């Protein structure tokens, strides 16, 4: 499905719900005895409201679970499972808050807090409210920054969406997740729009958005400031557009890590455009492990602005089963860097990188990094227009 189609459906959903009032198709958590004082456990109220929303089969439009404004709802690990009778909507106006103690996950899956699964008839999450991951206790015991006995590697993702189709998430804020903020696995036709996602730069593994096994996804008009990747794109993804996104702190937009442990990799048609990176450790990155198999192809980063970024353009290996079948383009990028190597294409002699295109890139160094350069290892491709620092790609295919 094209971005146009996704947008049309998206607008249609919004328009229909905004202009018609099917009173009986709204399920307000307060009518299910949610308290919303931030302390009372509102999990059961949310589950009951979801149950009725999901089982509603006589609404003319997608039934809506409503979380009213002005209140904070404490919700324990929860699963909103389908299949439902039709597409469903979740209107978040208040704040949904995770338990702040790690013990709330005792005996439960540490990997998730709010899970949406098996919603193949559609899911629309919207509203001006927020989702507070209360992640501090998890950060404080994370193995990344606090290694040692009792440290944890896996912490709850704030909102995880799996095995679903026609998913829209818009306008809400998600912050301070224990680990990833928004994750999508194994889903098709997804649009994220107008999101605000925030966590401290020092919070461990808190990707703003992580996707894996997803096809046909659009992420746009969002401000993403997190401790780890702004957006990370995992294996088995295709046709992903990321546009008009501001990434701050954390590690930038990363395709990978892919193929760790020799996994099959398949990533294609990724378009990242009109992105600003501010004070991130990487900008546009592709990272695959040499031991993997598969291919990474048709990747474009364009119209990029870097502001005090450490590795603006970086490829740590990428590969291809099909000879000459892989390619990645970096086009029209400007801005400043805080390391000497501003363009780094670092591949191996075993698996060289081919089909790389650099076009119209003008970077300059900040502070002591006035004299910046490019670095290439086994990197083949072409440069067009002005490329500063000067490209070091080799023009010839290594096997010719
Ligand atoms: C991404 O953009 C391309 C070209 O602009 C378009 O063909 C494709 O349908 C878009 N995909 C999504 C998921 O928005
Ligand atoms: C869910 O809804 C169904 C039918 O609408 C009802 O039979 C069932 O008791 C409800 N379960 C819960 C946990 O509310
Ligand atoms: C997120 O957590 C940090 C650190 O605990 C805190 O300073 C900040 O206020 C929190 N953000 C929000 C929006 O609550
Ligand atoms: C993102 O930040 C910009 C600049 O501060 C602001 O104009 C825009 O409305 C923000 N977008 C969202 C979705 O908050
Ligand atoms: C980048 O972020 C760090 C951590 O928040 C901050 O200390 C530093 O001043 C920022 N640097 C720039 C150049 O904005
Ligand atoms: C990658 O190669 C395909 C097939 O040759 C081509 O259609 C596509 O435009 C290329 N993409 C990039 C990003 O260079
Ligand atoms: C290059 O990217 C900038 C944003 O970084 C944009 O304003 C400009 O129009 C782009 N130039 C071209 C030729 O597309
Ligand atoms: C290239 O990758 C190798 C292996 O990971 C690493 O040792 C080396 O420092 C990298 N070179 C650059 C310029 O990043
Ligand atoms: C800048 O760096 C290049 C290569 O890294 C080096 O050859 C050159 O001498 C440096 N120039 C200055 C003025 O330091």
From TrEMBL:
The active site is at 251. Keywords: Cell wall, Cell wall biogenesis/degradation, Glycosidase, Hydrolase, Secreted, Signal. Its main location: secreted. It is found in: Secreted, Cell wall. GO terms for biological process: carbohydrate metabolic process; cell wall organization. InterPro entries: Glyco_hydro_28, PbH1, Pectin_lyas_fold, Pectin_lyase_fold/virulence. Pfam families: Glyco_hydro_28 (PF00295). Belongs to the glycosyl hydrolase 28 family. This is Glycoside hydrolase, family 28.
